[in-house]
Every structure is written in C-alpha cells, then in structure tokens.
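G., the chain you wanted modeled:
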Amino acid sequence: MKVILTQDVVNLGEEGDVRVVKDGYARNYLLPTGAAVLYNKTNAAVFASRAAAIEKRKQEKRAAAASLKEKLDAVVLEIVVPAGESGKLFGSVTSQMIQEELGKLGFEIERKKIEVATHAIKMTGNYHVLVHLYENESSMIKLVVLSEAEVKARAKAEAEARAKAEAEAKKAAEEAAAAEADAASESTEETAEVAEAAEEVAEPAEKAVDEE
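Predicted structure as tokens:
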C-alpha cells in the first residue's frame, strides 16, 4: 500500500515522505494512528502545498538533533544491576532502562530510538549504546554497567576516604592551633623578660636621681 507520512516514523521515513508498506502495517498502525494517509492525487496535492513548511520543520529538527548529539556524546551513563561475583548479570540491560536513566538526566528520548541488541549486555563493564536522533544523525552514549555489590564497595571506600581526610584535616588544625598557642606563650614570656630588664635598668636611674 502506498502512503504519505504525516509525521516522522522511526525506520520508515519523515513527514511528507511517500512510502510503500505492507497492507497490514498501514491498516493496523499507520492509518489508525494518523501517522500516514493514503497516497492519492488529493493528498499528494495537499502535501505539495505544505512542502515549504515541512522543509522548515526539518531544518529545525536537524539543528535540534545536532545540539542534542553534542550533549549526548558527553554523557557517561551508569546503570546499577544485580550481578554475580563474576560480573555476570542476573538480567539484562534494556532500552527502557537506558531511557529511564537518560530521563533522570533531563533527556527525553523515545525508547524505539535507543538501539540495544537483545542480550548483548550480559556482563558488568563499559559499553556504547546507539541512539538515533534525526535522519542520519545519531549518538553513541558511553554506558557503564555496575553491579550492586560494586556500588556498595565504592560507596564504602569513598566514605572511608572521606573520614580519613576529615581526621587528617582535624589533626592538622589541632597541630596548627597548638603551634599558635606555643608561639603566643613564647611571645608573652619574651615580653615579660623585656619588661623585667627595663625595670632593672630603670631602678638605678631612679635611685641616682633621688640621691641628687
């Protein structure tokens, strides 16, 4: 069946494109959802009159996709899952899981645009996931799959390092305060000694004045 797409359809085409699809796909999905209309002279003329507006929207989508790609390329996504001691996952990482994690970072990506091969991610480790954006634009997101045990161990290590740093900082502050106190004490003693010496010098002078 020949149809005209009224909106972008992943892996099929973009708004205004003419496509030949299976009858069942058209009747059960494209036409009922309004994603496409039948190709005929009337509909073709309507879309021809909208060509300029459609092209403008495409340009806007291209610009938005390029901007989104730049942001996604800088993302390092971490997903924590149950895994055995060997790092083998008890389940699998799905496109829905990645979509949810991206959503937490403020990226609204359609799940069908996230390409994760079935059961391809079976172990903890570093991976790359392809995200289709618009036309031929796509992004490879860096994915780090961690086990719950790894996360707990890392949190414990970070807490211990933080406690150690705080203890060292406290010790350094106490030593600095003690040094300042010693310095202040020495300064006070020196001042007292100078005052005492001054008094010893002044006493003979006062005595000589009295004798005169």
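The chain has two domains: 2-49, 59-179.

Shout if anything looks off.
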